[in-house]
Amino acid sequence: MLSNKLSASRWIHELMKDLDTEIACVRLGNVHVIAVSSPTIACEFLKKKDDVFVSRPISMSSYLISGGYLTTVLVPMGEQWSKMRKMISKDLLSPIKHRWLHAKRMEEADNLVRYVYSQCTTTHNGSNNNNNDEGGFVNLRIAAQHFCGNVIRKIIFNKRYFGEGGKDGGPGYEEIEHMNALFTLLKYLYAFSVCDYIPWLRGLDLDGHQKKLKDAMKIINKYHDSIVEGRIKQWKEGKKTEAEDLLDVMISLKHPNNNSLLTSEEIKAQITELMLATVDNPSNAAEWVLAEMLNQPQLLQKATEEVDRVVGNGRMVQESDIPKLNYIKACAREAFRLHPVAPFNVPHVSLSDAVVSNHFIPKGSQVLLSRQQLGRNPKVWKDEPHVFKPERHLKDDGCDVYLSEPDLKFLSFSVGKRGCPGLVLGSTITVMLLARLIHGFSWSTPPDRTKVELVESETDLLLAHPLVAIAKPRLPREVYLFD
Ligand code: HEM
Fold it and tell me: Which PROSITE patterns match (predicted)?
């Protein structure tokens, strides 16, 4: 029995290798599942036949997480998807809103540096070590995941912490619980659960996924619901009249008939989905980049030289620097290529019969683009596909590097009608996270190690062990003193 995403993906990938094919069909119950590892075929699905392969599967996990299909990412093609997709693109993630939220993102970029700085300058017994001779241990998974969580909480709820938070800028108990619940949802979302393929098993929860998802949703709702409900009340009572964050924006959107565009249930479900969409890709990419760089210090040096050249040592990296940080962006692209956070893209479902790459694909098939195999396809990535080499993404003409990959030679933000509307925000978070870590600190392996073990976890594609490294501040002390 296929118990989770990873064992199912391993099985499908093995099958494709044995059959020496870039497109394979397996039947799970009544469903045809089509796995793809060729960019040309992937483009046929998501560009040429985008109108056909535009839906999403019905599954126990997506139903629970989306509040009964009230959201965007997880919702099958139809009116609800159209309404929410339009709302997200136009009202939440538009260029104007992105600029409006700039100060909130910067607050969190500063907090990231404050947190890491405090980790390196606090000795084991808790006293302050401002000489910074030895540096200090930093758990990069915690720093990266909580930076992403802080950014999305700040732009949606206008707050970093649900409770007191950590004194050093780090997460408090509540944020740790919240983040763990988000990652639990991500782990079981579209995990191959038998009940999705054998309908009469529904409700039995044989693999225990349903309970895990429900428990995680309870935690998320515990934190979100009171904030959303309280805010709706404030607007109703006229105590709030001006939008300060995306929750306010969602509450104040109007339908042409002047009623609210979104119900409280839609707002709650959409917020959870936006949080899920934000936290995993950037944090996983940053952790893998730093891990790869610790093993290849010449890459870290190149990236450090770039930020020093572009930013200097008198201030922190700003968003306006991002266009010039091409090497850092090449590193992020290389992490998306070689170390995607999930084995497959979000599944696409066909609305009618179709022929793709000379194969007949029946209506209702689920198409899984393999993030792992697209990025490592030796026909596409001829130069040592398994080696982390950011240089492969630099343009000969020195043109700007972007994190999107429209030819699907690896999968970052995908393309087409279901392509990611969070491209700008997601790219900004990823590059800012990496650039601030590299510019603000020098990094080395702990004294008892010379190399990082670059092994994926048994249960997901994150590093098997959270990356812990030694950080030392590398800029003048006053640059770290934020207001
Ligand atoms: C580095 C960061 C990110 C990456 C790599 C990424 C990647 C993706 C991918 C691969 C998809 C699925 C595309 C498909 O079905 O073919 C997707 C969908 C989506 N993403 Fe992102 N994403 C990122 C950040 C964000 C952020 C920050 C948001 C919003 C806050 C966001 C919102 C969405 C939404 C709403 C969809 C669903 C689109 C639909 O089904 O219509 N993403 N993203």
Answer: CYTOCHROME_P450
Q: Which residues pair with 34 in a beta bridge?
A: 25, 367
DSSP β-bridge partners for residue 269: none
> Percentages helix, strand, coil for the chain, rounded to the nearest 5?
50, 10, 40
CB of 88 shorter than 6 A to ligand 1 = yes
| Nearest atom of ligand 1 to the alpha carbon of 56 | 40
Measured by CA distance, the residue closest to atom 42 of ligand 1 is: 422
Q: Where are the beta strands (DSSP E) in 391-467?
A: 441-444
> Ligand 1 centre and the CA of 235: distance in Å?
30
Q: Around 221, how many Cα atoms within 13 Å sit in the side-chain half-sphere?
A: 13
Ligand 1 atom with least separation from CA of 426: 2
| CB count in 10 Å sphere of residue 314 | 9
The pLDDT-based confidence of 200 (bands split at 50, 70, 90) is confident
483: helix, strand or coil: coil
161-184 tens-digit pLDDT: 999 999 899 999 999 999 999 999
Q: Which atom from ligand 1 is nearest to the alpha carbon of 427?
A: 1
Q: Which of 363, 465, 413, 359 is nearest to 142 (CA)?
A: 465
**Six-digit token pair at 376?**
């490592």
| Contacts for 364 with CB less than 8 Å, ≥ 6 apart | 31, 32, 349, 350
Q: Amino acid identity of 48?
A: K
345 CA → ligand 1 middle, Å:
10
Determine which helix (DSSP H) or strand (DSSP E) holds 187, and give its type and residue range. Answer: helix 173-188
What is d(CA 308, CA 438) in angstroms, rounded to the nearest whole number? Answer: 10
List the domains of the chain with CATH numbers. Answer: 5-67+77-480 (1.10.630.10)
CB distance 184 to 216 below 8 Å: yes
Cα–Cα distance for residue pair 326/339, rounded to 1 Å: 19
Q: Are residues 286 and 469 in contact, defined by beta-carbon separation less than 8 angstroms?
A: no
Tell me the CA–centroid distance for residue 306 and ligand 1, in Å: 28
Confidence of residue 4 (pLDDT cuts 50, 70, 90): low
Instruction: Confirm whether residue 399 is marked as ligand binding.
Output: no
- Could you tell me which of 13, 126, 2, 3 has the C-alpha nearest to residue 369? 13
Identify the CA nearest to 215 among candidates 193, 184, 189, 183: 184
Q: How far is the CA of 413 from the centre of ligand 1 (A)?
A: 6
- Reported as a single tens digit per residue, the pLDDT across 233-274 is 999 999 999 999 999 999 999 999 999 999 999 999 999 999
* Mutation to probe ligand 1, out of 245, 322, 420 (largest number of atoms < 8 A from CB): 420
Distance from C-alpha of 340 to C-alpha of 206, rounded to nearest angstrom = 29
285: Cβ contacts below 8 Å, ≥ 6 apart: 332, 335, 336, 339, 341, 430, 434
C-alpha 117/C-alpha 132 separation (Å) is 10
